Amino acid sequence: MYYSFMRFRKHPVSLALMIAVAMASCSKNNSTSTVTGEVHYAVSNVAGAYPSQTTYVQGLANLNISQLSNANAAESPNFASQWTYDDAVYLTSFGAPATITKYTFDATGKAVVAGKLVVPGANTFSSVEFVSKTEAYASVGGGLARIVKFNPTALQTTGEINLSAFAKPGAASVYYLGMKARDGKLFLGIQYFNASFNPLADSAFVGVIDLAAGKTEKLLADARTSNIFLAGSSVSGFATDAAGDLYIQGQGSGAAPSGILRIRKGATSFDADYFFNLKAATGKDCSGLYILNNQAFTTRIEDATDAYETKGPNFRYYRIDLAGKTSLGDLSASLPKIYGSSTSIMRAFDAATVSFVVSSDKENSIYTYNVADGSVARKITLSAGMCTGFDKVN
Fold first, then answer.
1. Is the bond preceding 77 in cis, omega lying within 30 degrees of 0?
2. Percent of the chain residues past pLDDT 90, beyond the cut
3. Tens of pLDDT, residues 17-57
4. What is the tens place of the pLDDT at every residue in 117-134?
5. Where are the beta strands (DSSP E) in 50-145?
6. Which residues constitute the signal peptide according to the record (predicted)?
């Protein structure tokens, strides 16, 4: 059986999400959030406690505001993940039937529904990857072991890829979380669980799919790390560097530490000569990977007994050196611990800064990290809800 974002129901991460969202309030208020001019950024946030959650999505002309409310936001009556491509936002809602809702923005920055793609029999979409204006892929859950190929402009299904070749005996549930298209191949993160919801094996699994043929090619396995369990919307585990090399982060399980594997540009197998042991480098297991402005980042899990944050925020942003395979330390000691199992968004909108989300028990904000001097500063405070989407559009 296949699960995707159903982990919010079957895993303690749901409690972390409910705590953070409830803390942030669940209603609109009167903070600043006006739009003047063309929309260039999209922000979404989730408010309320599961199962009564609402996702708010809106467009911004710029980031020159100190507070952001939901006054100008469109509402989706559920938890939804945000994906962006070109000038549109795509929300994948949590709950059957699996639905992608496409939004574009009007002159006031209001998100307007431009279409929906629905797959009956599936619970949700777990990962989405855009290749062009006419080609994109989304993995679906709910007993359907497949990837849907669709046209993001027309928002119509154009094909599918059967994933049954990636099935494993003894797997009671399978998660397809995280994907990256490169060189005509789709690299897909896969995590297998037994009936007790423990990893079937302490190994990292990545499926390789030939996009031209629309077929599975091979299943990669590597026991140097394990547990590729990141979807790539609010938490990312797949990243490419300037050379086109693909790095994939595993959270670790059992005797396998959290770490980073590499697939070289032009290759379709793990690089046997490269492994970054994040646990050894940072002192603790880590989650997530971002390569931005020639720098790399992850989040460190502070309390190993609470990786899914039932006790409160438990992650810290860390800088890492991929080439040297070393830790460069805490991003900033002044930052609070975040709810990293639910959201640890980092983006680079210019060459000078990295923008990132801080969702804690005390605040929900967007910060910037100055590449030149390493300083961090709060940019925008979200006055209602936990930020689960933050992207550039246009």
1. no
2. 79
3. 433 333 333 333 334 445 556 899 999 999 988 888 999 99
4. 999 888 889 999 999 999
5. 52-60, 67-68, 74-76, 80-85, 88-93, 98-105, 111-119, 125-132, 135-140
6. 1-24
pLDDT at position 96: 86
Contact 287, 316 (CB under 8 A): no
Long-range contacts from 369-372, C-beta under 8 angstroms, 24+ separation: 369/331, 369/332, 371/293, 371/295
Tell whether the torsion through CA atoms of 70, 73, 78 and 83 is positive or negative: negative
Rounded distance, CA 207 to CA 108, Å?
A: 42
| Structural tokens at position 303 | 């309390």
CA distances from 152 to 86, 113, 116, 182, 293 (A): 10, 14, 10, 18, 28
- Enter the pTM of the model: 0.91
State how far the Cα of 368 lies from the Cα of 379, in Å rounded to an integer: 6
Which class for 221: exposed (0-12), middle (13-18), buried (19 or more C-beta within 10 A)? middle
Lowest mean pLDDT of 12-21, 241-250, 379-388, name the range: 12-21
- Asked whether 92 and 81 are in contact (CB, 8 A), the reply is yes
Mean pLDDT in residue range 359-379 = 96
Q: How many CB atoms lie within 10 A of CB 222?
A: 21
Q: Which residues of 334-371 are buried (b: 16+ CB within 10 A; e: fewer)?
A: ebebbbbbbbbbbbbbeeebbbbbbbbeeebbbbbbeb
Task: Tell me, rounded to whole angstroms, the distance of Cα 127 from its chain centroid.
Answer: 8
Q: Residue 391's Cα: distance from chain center in Å?
A: 12
Lookup: tokens for 319: 């800088």
